[in-house]
Every structure is written in C-alpha cells, then in structure tokens.
Amino acid sequence: MDRQAAPLGHVPEHLVDPLADALGAALDGAPAPECVLGPATVRGSGQWLYAPVDGLAELSDEVFAATEHLVPVTHPQPFRGFLVLATGRVPAEVGGEPLDGTWRPTEVALVADRSAPGKPRLVDLLTLPLGP
Questions:
Q1: Using the 8-state DSSP alphabet, how is residue 39 labeled?
Q2: Distance between CA atoms of 42 and 50, rounded to whole angstroms?
Q3: 3 inside domain
C-alpha cells in the first residue's frame, strides 16, 4: 500500500466517535515505532521550519487503512513524517542545520484544525496509547 497523507482539517463532530472507534480497533496493542529525527532542518516556503521524521510509515499505513472508509483520500499525496519547529518568518539560514535524535512515541492523537485566518488553533480530539 502506498503511504498517503489525508489531512483531516476540520473534523466534523459526527465523525469523531466513528474515527475514535476505528483508530482504537486498529491501534489496539500496536507497538510504539522508533522515530528517527533528521538529518537536517528544512525551511519550507519561508513560513515553516521542520525536521523530517522517519519510522512512522507502518503506523501511517494502519491509520489510513482504518479510517479511509470514513475520510476518503481525495487528493493522494505521499506521507512524510515531520516535526514542526517554527512557523512565521523563518530565516533562510536556519534551513539545513544538522540534527538527530530518536524516540518512541507513547500515543497517537487525532487533531482537528479549528484555525481561522491569522489564528492557528489545533485541537486534540482524542489520544490513543501505543504499546512498548
């Protein structure tokens, strides 16, 4: 299965419980993957600074397989794991800075985007634990 990104953006309230049930069933007992940060920061579009994260592909496949019947992928894009480090006016010189690190996440969160123009607001709708 190709890994696909399906940003939910605004999650309608009527989908929260079915998404929670689908994700809970799919991730019950799922092991925590090893995430690898780096190798360098990326400055995207001058407005974002992020760090690539490898190790989430299998977990991503599980999430998309479990939720596709509720939130169909209409504009397929390759899945890319990343950690946002900064937003706004990101100086060009901070892109490409080396970094590294590893960790195992303890949970997965379903996050809704409730932002308005100029007012970012992300809301955790639910979290699900991952195994050791």
A1: S
A2: 5
A3: no
* Joined tokens for residue 129: 């634990």
Query: Does residue 7 lie within any of the structural domains?
Result: no
d(CA 1, CA 109): 22
Q: How far apart are CA 115 and CA 121, in angstroms?
A: 5
| Structural domain boundaries enclosing 39 | 13-129
Domains: count for the chain: 1
Structure-token match 């019947």, residue found: 69
- Mean of the pLDDT values across residues 61-81? 85
Domain of 59, CATH number, reads 3.90.1140.10
Question: Mean pLDDT highest for which of 2-11, 21-30, 44-53?
Answer: 21-30
Distance CA 73, CA 7 (A): 9
Condensed to tens digits (0 to 9), the pLDDT of residues 27-48 reads 999 999 999 999 999 998 778 8
Residue 66 lies in a domain: yes
- Where residue 2 falls among pLDDT bands split at 50, 70, 90? very low
Do the domain assignments include residue 84?
yes
